[in-house]
Amino acid sequence: MKPTVLMVPRLPAIGADRLREEYDLLGPMASPTPDALPPGAERARAMVTMGSLKTTEALISALPALELVSVWGTGYDAVDRPALARRGIRLSNAGDANAPIVAEMAMGLVLATTRLIAAGDRYVRAGRWKGNAVERMPIMPGLAGKRLGIYGLGAIGTRVAARAAPFEVEIGYHNRRRRDDVPYAYFDNLLALAEWSDVLVVAVRAGAENKYSVNAEVLRALGHTGHLVNISRGIAVDTSALCDALEARSIAGAALDVFENEPEVPDRLKALDNVVLTPHLGANTQYSHVAQARMMLDNVAAHFAGRRPPGLVED
């Protein structure tokens, strides 16, 4: 008999079809709650979900046979890890499968905010471009010779640094600990990194310990010529403080691919012309979907074969 796997969200066909071929697949669910469990869920030995969906103790408790929670993607901040630990349930994710693509998006957002790409698009569409007329877009400082700070030099942050280097920027970072394998300037606290940076890229793991770590004080340190880019999770940035800073022009601009209560985006942000907003597109490419599907399938297969899942989360 095939092992039973519960699919919480409707996953892309590239992953869901293979799960359906190889396992007794249940789902998707209307919501990640016990009352939405399909018939037969008590047999589920593995659950496939997304890091942005809450995996609560109540849901875990309603699955008595559960042995593995496999997250599609990298983030697992919404998974109740203590509840898993009490049951001895494994947790796996996609590791750094989508890191190259998210880093690619980060650099796109860095350029979008520092080079006013979205504002330029609006300028042209509004018919305001008059060639060499007096009215023109403001002169931009560009990236060459500037300082790019990376908050969180993990799989994504490291790739952001590698992609930023050809733009002739100086790179610094703040991490839980200094890394001896990189040549970048290390700052032992986020405030010092923000004071040093012209552009601050948020790539930190967005666990509860990092909630609102980019706060009003950090934004003041970034300063009126500074730009903030967030491709981590929305909770890493205090949205109210960011809106205050953007409205007061106490920072120059921001570019956000993630928000605290997705898909809700505060009206204050939408009303501003010095922020670029994208709908969590960081990992939304064919490359990353293939990579994430492969990692998810490998995690589930390894578990049922009695092996260590390649994306096992242990820290």
Q: Main beta sheet: strand number and arrangement?
A: 7 strands, parallel
Number of strands: 12
Give the terminus-to-terminus CA distance. 34 Å
Q: Give me the CATH superfamily of the largest domain.
A: NAD(P)-binding Rossmann-like Domain
Strand content is 5-15%
Structural class: alpha/beta
CATH T-level fold name of the largest domain: Rossmann fold
Count of helical stretches: 11
Mean pLDDT: 94
Q: What order do the helices and strands follow?
A: EHEEHEHEHHEHEEHEHEHEHEH
Low-confidence stretches: none
Task: Specify Rg, calculated over alpha carbons.
Answer: 21 Å
CATH architecture annotation name of the largest domain:
3-Layer(aba) Sandwich
